[in-house]
Design a protein that fits this description.
The protein is mainly alpha-helical. It has six helices and three strands, in the order ααβααββαα. This is DUF1453 domain-containing protein.
């Protein structure tokens, strides 16, 4: 199958998702302040994307679901480690998180998109794929790892948000 045929055969929603994810990854390069809720978007997108694929892929069975969960747990640990080693601040009054610029989200987005795209092409051009073939399990594992990494980072932001001591309103009283 030619590259042109692969590009033409890719659903439009995949390209829209790529543009959205790239915009989020590029924005993360600059760092900045964002509401905590807005930082939940990418973890939710990756979790929903992975779970939806498991639910709709006819070749996915319990092994794929187990691989996704295992990947998500491993990714969660990695995401917690990454976030804890990053200096960021939270503002409880404004309900925002200020993050330094980082290439990590963009790299994760690119690696995930490329691997899921490649696996999707392989699954699409293969003859009927047996349930839980290596491709389907690998796709689930990668999806779980990335969803877990983004979720782990977000979890640390939430924990810091809740754990930060309240600032006294007026020290003079």
């Amino acid at each position: 199958m030619s590259f042109e045929a692969i590009v033409r055969g890719t659903p439009v929603w995949v390209w829209i998702l790529l543009v959205f994810l790239l915009s989020r990854g590029i924005k993360a390069l600059k760092g900045g302040t964002a509401p905590l809720g807005k930082l939940a978007i990418v973890p939710v997108v990756f979790a929903v994307w992975g779970i939806a694929h498991l639910a709709t892929e006819q070749a996915a069975g319990w092994q794929s679901a187990a691989a996704w969960v295992l990947g998500a747990v491993a990714g969660l640990l990695v995401g917690v480690f990454i976030a804890r080693s990053t200096s960021f601040t939270v503002d409880r009054v404004q309900k925002t998180v200020t993050l330094p610029g980082s290439v990590v989200p963009l790299i994760l987005i690119l690696v995930t998109f490329a691997s899921k795209f490649w696996l999707g092409v392989e699954l699409a051009i293969s003859a009927p794929v047996p349930v839980d073939s290596g491709y389907v399990v690998l796709d689930a594992l990668i999806s779980g790892i990335v969803a877990g990494i983004f979720a782990g980072r977000f979890l640390v932001y939430c924990m810091r948000f809740r754990a930060q001591a309240a600032v006294p309103v007026n020290d003079n009283l």
